[in-house]
Design a protein that fits this description.
139 residues; mainly beta; 2 domains; 12% helix
Length: 139
């Protein structure tokens, strides 16, 4: 019997995760925050739901020269990458710079809690049906 070679189902694009983000972290203080936006936010390539506690870390970003919109205003989302010695110029974005009062609140002490997708569904179901968590079947 001829065995077929094992195939690895990997996407053709680079996958970003905690293992390959190490080169992006910068020096400085970190800040523990809680997401207060009802719609949630994305930070560090992960979805953060309302009530999730996570850590803002300083990181390096690529500097760009903003492009001009047709009305003459700068467009920060599109633009030319600023190069220095043939390499993209990096700038340190501190944890304080990343903090947004509109979507986050500061947390003191230890509160390591993130909400999984199933927990978020159960919480929303409890709110809609006005059930207590003890009355719902546990999976």
């Amino acid at each position: 019997m001829i065995q077929e070679p094992q195939r690895q189902n990997r996407p053709p694009w680079p996958v970003i995760n905690d293992d390959n983000l190490d080169g992006n972290q910068g020096p400085g203080e970190t800040i523990d925050v809680r997401c207060i936006a009802p719609e949630g936010i994305y930070y560090n390539y992960r979805r953060r739901r309302e009530g999730d506690v996570f850590t803002l870390m300083p990181r390096y970003i690529t500097e760009t020269q903003p492009a001009q919109l047709p009305d003459g205003k700068p467009n920060p989302r599109r633009g030319e990458v600023i190069k220095e010695n043939g390499q993209p110029k990096k700038k340190l974005l501190t944890a304080r710079d990343q903090f947004s009062e509109r979507t986050m609140e500061l947390v003191e002490g230890e509160h390591p809690h993130t909400t999984s997708a199933q927990e978020a569904i159960n919480q929303k179901q409890d709110e809609l049906t006005d059930k207590t968590p003890s009355r719902r079947r546990s999976a």
